[in-house]
Design a protein that fits this description.
By secondary structure, the protein is mainly beta. The chain is 11% helix and 40% strand. It is built from 4 helices and 22 strands. It has helices at residues 2-11, 186-193, 243-253, 302-310, and strands at residues 28-38, 43-51, 56-65, 73-75, 80-85, 95-100, 110-114, 128-130, 139-142, 148-158, 166-174, 179-183, 200-210, 220-222, 224-228, 236-240, 257-261, 266-268, 281-288, 296-299, 314-316, 325-328. Strands 1, 2, 3, 4, 5, 6, 7, 8, 9 and 10 form a 10-stranded antiparallel β-sheet that branches. A hairpin with a 4-residue loop joins strand 11 (166-174) and strand 12. The longest helix has 11 residues, at 243-253. It is globular, with a radius of gyration of 22 Å. The termini are far apart.
């Protein structure tokens, strides 16, 4: 009976995820992570889609937050890859592994491995599957090491596709500080507009991005936000759509810059060699004031950038035109 079950599990790996709860024959299924935690209090949320044709996870948005030892991180197709291991490849369990793809220059890959309690023998496909708590094959760490182990949680078979929603990223300026700041967070924007945070006013510039949690597609990346500590003489914010740059800020300037979020909104990253943005997006440029308080400004206008450069600011970005990220919409 055990051998028979193993054979069924291997043959039914393609039916792992069935779109629409209870359908074992559907090609694609969507699974949501619910209540998944690690042993240090870290939480894991998000969802993934599975295609039983190529036996692969084809889309995912998995966010790891809290706990200790590692930065928060959002795994999406643009910054990570997946590995599916079935019972024929692993003698004790099946698992899905997410591995960040931005490495080199000191950047160590992030690895998240989740081992669901698969019930391939069941027909129809179950509505939920627990996440087994075996540290050897489940958890999250750097470069393949399991720094944190899964304590519990489940996958839930769901019908709803993750939303795709746009948000305006609004720019503000503080004349007293000569600092620029941008936000896509409505409560934060309201606090700036109403004077709760005094001295800030809208510049009239903005660009569009996708909200945190939007369906990732193949190009969307999370944008991290760091806060330069006043104790270091900075009191400013820094944004990046590059997982490598987000990691480097913490690794090299962690005593001066504190991460506030790994995902404040989502945009595309340009080709890091040419600086070319994907179709349907508009280049966003970044300039640096070249002062100890380290303020940065982000804009879509080359005219505004030229004005900032004339005032002594330095452009930062990829390719000959120094593009730093790619907002939604055409120029």
């Amino acid at each position: 009976m055990r051998d028979l079950r193993r054979g069924i599990r291997a043959a039914a790996l393609a039916a792992l995820f069935a779109l629409g709860a209870g359908s074992a024959s559907a090609a694609v299924t969507l699974w949501q992570l619910q209540g998944v935690t690690f042993d240090d209090g870290t939480t894991v949320s998000g969802s993934l889609a599975y295609d039983d044709g190529p036996n692969a996870v084809t889309s995912w948005w998995i966010r790891v937050q809290g706990g200790s030892g590692l930065l928060p991180f959002t795994y999406v197709p643009a910054n990570s890859s997946t590995i599916m291991a079935g019972s024929l490849l692993h003698t004790t369990a099946d698992y899905v592994e997410f591995r960040s793809t931005e490495g080199g220059n000191g950047v160590v890959p992030r690895v998240l491995r989740l081992m669901p309690q698969w019930y391939f023998e069941s027909t129809p496909t179950p509505s939920t599957m627990a996440v087994i708590t075996i540290p050897a094959v489940s958890g999250e760490g750097m470069g393949g090491t399991s720094a944190r182990s899964v304590a519990g949680g489940q996958f839930k078979n769901v019908m709803l596709v993750p939303p795709v929603a746009l948000v305006d990223v609004i720019e503000f300026y503080h004349a007293g500080f000569d600092h620029y700041f941008m936000s896509a967070n409505p409560p934060e924007i309201d606090a700036l507009d109403t004077g709760f945070f005094t001295g800030w006013a809208r510049t009239g510039h903005s660009f569009k991005a996708y909200v945190t949690g939007s369906s990732p597609g193949t190009t969307l990346r999370p944008v991290c936000r760091y806060y330069g500590l006043p104790s270091a003489g900075i009191d400013s914010h820094f944004y990046s759509a590059s997982a490598a740059e987000c990691w480097q800020v913490n690794a090299y300037f962690g005593t001066e810059w504190q991460i506030e979020s790994d995902n404040v909104f989502q945009v595309a990253l340009p080709d890091t060699t040419t600086g070319v943005c994907p179709g349907g997006t508009v280049p966003v440029y970044r300039v640096f004031n070249n002062k100890h308080d380290a303020n940065h400004r982000y804009m879509t206008s080359t005219v505004v950038r030229a004005q900032m450069e004339a005032a002594g600011w330095i452009r930062e970005g990829y390719g000959p035109d120094a593009t730093i990220m790619c907002a939604v919409g055409a120029p």
